[in-house]
Task: inverse folding
């Protein structure tokens, strides 16, 4: 029964990891940008949520209505300026630039806020509660909610990419930038839109993390970026469902590891990551390049 | 004499150290089918790509509809009516046939072409519209690439090496479609290694050799000997076996 519990908890935590990962996956899939500031941006989203909640007193759950658009605009702006400028030089430059961005964000947070941990307190609502199955399995509503949000976000993204005009252009630009230009598509603008969407999901993942756990300026790189990477690599790059699968596998591996010995939690996740890299480097759902 | 719709003035383009085009000029009148021929590496594709805006010239200018568009971005040129079918087709591999056409129509100018009309022109296409383009033959892919350009309703259609990598029969079939396409009032600038195909459809001919113009005129006014000399860069008689130029393929296209 403890193992069933570990697997269920792992699957649900996987939803959070998938939410971390989908922005990273989208940015790489479309722009070929590995955004090393991804985790820090999620934390920025969490801090913005904290600020919004403090000022407006709206419920934590609804903070995304304000935070997601802010982050989306920030994503478009960053893509059209700093990231595009890096892309125009070389793909490698984007690594350096987003790494720099990561350092700047982290230190700016330390400088202008502080190094203390914060959390997005949900207060006493149903979200903080849990329900139990049998005597040994306790499931937090918050984790179920986050998992559901992850699935909805992935479904929404999938639908947007396959059925909408801009989704089609995003896929076209990802396939062949030059050919898209020849059809009158301004790929810089399309990149900006893809970044806006990615940053929107980043904001959601930041809020979700803030509700799930405590966060500090360094949480972005320490936790979110690494787990997002692991989920993307395990699942396979560029596949949205692979991202969910990757997140779930990472979550389950961690929980099973923790069940064996609590200090194995993070290690177990990375062992699975390593195994995937060795046995199936393209990821579980990825096609061989 | 009417004003040219597209004009290139003394265009010089470098690829790094290499001078791909050297002071090339051309004037394309409305309704013309202007063919640029030349061997591999003559600078034909560079010329077309520079007109489309994918390369920036070192010097010289590109004029369209009386305006200097040399500094205008590729996508702006496309929406203004200069649309290219790129070499090697360059379809969007993860998109279906229909989606490829839809992307082509994203920023279409008003005009006679739409996706339905492309389906009428290429009858097989409608039944296979939901397939990925990788499942199509080379000739079919080329048709989709042409369709993708047509739905944008270009005024000037740039065709880069339609015959590349295709069987001669397929090439003939595609070129046989051209008059039907041209009937909608397009101006065409095409680049071709396959001289016989180019001559069949062209109303004006220009031959490039190592970045220079070596021959220019109406197909009726030039002799096969002149074309061969211009194509291979020979002053006098053509080399042995070069009559193959007229039978549908060139030595270099066979090699590729």
Result:
């Amino acid at each position: 029964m403890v193992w069933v519990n570990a697997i269920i908890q792992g699957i649900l935590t996987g939803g959070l990891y998938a939410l971390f990962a989908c922005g990273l996956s989208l940015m790489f899939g479309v722009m070929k940008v590995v955004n090393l500031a991804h985790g820090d941006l999620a934390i920025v989203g969490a801090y913005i949520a904290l600020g919004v909640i403090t000022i407006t007193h709206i419920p934590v759950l609804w903070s995304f209505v304000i935070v997601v658009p802010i982050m989306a605009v920030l994503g478009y702006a960053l893509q059209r300026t700093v990231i595009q400028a890096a892309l125009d030089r070389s793909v490698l430059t984007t690594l350096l630039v987003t790494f720099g961005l990561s350092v700047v964000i982290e230190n700016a947070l330390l400088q202008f806020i502080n190094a203390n941990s914060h959390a997005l307190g949900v207060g006493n609502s149903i979200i903080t509660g849990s329900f139990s199955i049998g005597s040994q399995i306790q499931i937090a509503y918050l984790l179920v909610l986050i998992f559901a949000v992850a699935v909805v976000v992935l479904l929404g993204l999938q639908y947007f990419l396959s059925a909408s005009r801009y989704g089609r252009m995003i896929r076209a630009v990802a396939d062949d930038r030059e050919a898209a230009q020849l059809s009158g598509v301004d790929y810089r603008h399309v990149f900006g839109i893809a970044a806006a969407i990615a940053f929107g999901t980043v904001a959601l993942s930041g809020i979700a993390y803030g509700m799930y756990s405590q966060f500090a300026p360094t949480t972005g790189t320490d936790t979110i970026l690494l787990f997002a990477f692991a989920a993307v690599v395990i699942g396979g790059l560029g596949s949205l469902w692979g991202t969910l699968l990757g997140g779930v596998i990472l979550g389950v591996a961690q929980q099973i590891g923790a069940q064996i010995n609590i200090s194995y939690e993070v290690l177990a996740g990375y062992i699975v990551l390593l195994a995937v890299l060795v046995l199936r480097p393209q990821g579980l759902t990825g096609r061989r390049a | 004499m009417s004003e040219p719709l597209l004009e290139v003035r003394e265009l010089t383009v470098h690829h790094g150290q290499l001078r791909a085009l050297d002071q090339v000029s051309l004037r394309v009148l409305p309704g013309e089918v202007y063919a640029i021929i030349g061997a591999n590496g003559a600078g034909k594709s560079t010329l077309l790509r520079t007109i489309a805006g994918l390369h920036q010239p070192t010097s010289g200018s590109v004029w369209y509809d009386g305006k200097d568009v040399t500094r205008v971005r590729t996508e702006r040129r496309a929406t203004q009516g200069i649309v290219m079918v790129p070499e090697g087709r360059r379809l969007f591999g993860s998109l279906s046939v229909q989606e490829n056409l839809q992307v082509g129509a994203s920023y279409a100018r008003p005009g006679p072409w739409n996706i339905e009309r492309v389906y009428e022109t290429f009858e097989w296409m409608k039944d296979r519209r939901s397939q990925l383009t990788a499942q199509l033959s080379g000739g079919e892919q080329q048709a989709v690439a042409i369709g993708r350009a047509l739905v944008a309703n270009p005024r000037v259609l740039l065709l880069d090496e339609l015959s590349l990598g295709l069987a001669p029969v397929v090439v003939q079939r595609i070129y046989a479609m051209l008059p039907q396409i041209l009937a909608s009032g397009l101006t065409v600038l095409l680049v071709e290694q396959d001289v016989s195909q180019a001559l069949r459809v062209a109303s004006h001919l220009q031959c490039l050799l190592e970045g220079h113009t070596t021959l220019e005129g109406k197909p009726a006014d030039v002799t096969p000997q002149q074309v061969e000399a211009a194509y291979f860069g020979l002053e006098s008689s053509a080399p042995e076996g070069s009559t193959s130029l007229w039978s549908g393929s060139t030595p270099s296209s066979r090699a590729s």
Notes: The radius of gyration of chain A is 19 Å.
